[in-house]
Amino acid sequence: MSADLSLPQGPTRGREVVLDVRGLVKHYDDTPVLHGIDVTVGEHEVVALIGSSGSGKSTLLRCAALLEPVTDGQVLLDGQDITDPGVDADAVRSRFGVVFQAYNLFPHMTVRQNITLAPRVVHGVPADQADARAEELLARVGLLDKADAYPDRLSGGQQQRAAIARAVAVEPRVLLLDEVTSALDPELVGEVLALVRELAEGGATILMATHEMGFARRVADHVCFLDGGRLVEEGPPAQVLGEPTVARTQQFLRRVVDAGRL
Ligand SMILES: Nc1ncnc2c1ncn2[C@@H]1O[C@H](COP(=O)(O)OP(=O)(O)OP(=O)(O)O)[C@@H](O)[C@H]1O
């Protein structure tokens, strides 16, 4: 697999914040799920959200990409408040590349059609250009020979690699990855993590929820530990995962270590 998965790169002076989540509050009906979360993702950074099941990682990602209405707080993308009611939500959503746990390729479309759909329909890219870009991406994720196959002919790992290629095809400002390996058989996890790592090394800006602590430690620039919808501890991976200072983080990591996941 080629290592060149680079996305367009912006200025490298200082830390340019791309995604800025401020005081994010989310209620489902009257139940609070996020209690005021602050997270920033800088250009070319990888920020990992970790925490127990139900701690709010997916909800945070979904709110950030306007896939869920925000109850309170703000989300800024390149300085623009995208939670402002006046924004064109569809246009904003098209600036994110989102990949969920269960590879959600459209089953009635070939892999190639899955990848070219949004560039053509949402971004107005001419069909031949979208097709050429899809082939380039499929070659890079090692799936060129599957371009005209339907998703049910692909392994879970291949489907997830195709889903990531589809997310990258729109040249997103931020990639949001939600537990992209958790639905996979263990032997397929590595191939998908390798692809995410290549994207990170190629300069992608990524906010990802993950249960893969070893991966977060190796690839993330910054780790945020969520517990019960609160951001309890954050910092460089070596600190949060290696020398956590908050009792709740320590307890969580002990369980992760006992389960053999760190
Ligand atoms: N659509 C929904 N309606 C009501 N409650 C929801 C909904 N989606 C999530 N929740 C609740 O919000 C809380 C946070 O869920 P969320 O899926 O964000 O957690 P998570 O950290 O991503 O969990 P996991 O690691 O299992 O994916 C949970 O208590 C969950 O039950």
What are the SSEs and their pairings?
Layout: E1 17-28, E2 31-42, E3 46-50, H1 57-64, E4 72-77, E5 80-81, H2 89-93, E6 96-99, H3 111-121, H4 127-140, H5 156-169, E7 174-178, H6 186-201, E8 206-209, H7 213-219, E9 222-227, E10 230-235, H8 237-242, H9 247-258
Parallel strand pairs: 3-8, 3-9, 6-7, 7-8
Antiparallel strand pairs: 1-2, 1-4, 4-5, 9-10
Helix pairs in contact: 3-4, 3-5, 4-5, 5-6
Bound molecules: adenosine-5'-triphosphate.
Adenosine-5'-triphosphate (ATP) binds at residues 28, 33, 51, 53-59, 179, 209.
Rg on CA atoms, Å: 18 Å
CATH level 3 topology of the largest domain: Rossmann fold
Overall number of strands: 10
Which percent range fits the helix content? 25-40%
Quote the distance from N terminus to C terminus.
Answer: 27 Å
Uncertain runs = 8-12
The coarse overall form would be globular
Structural class: alpha/beta
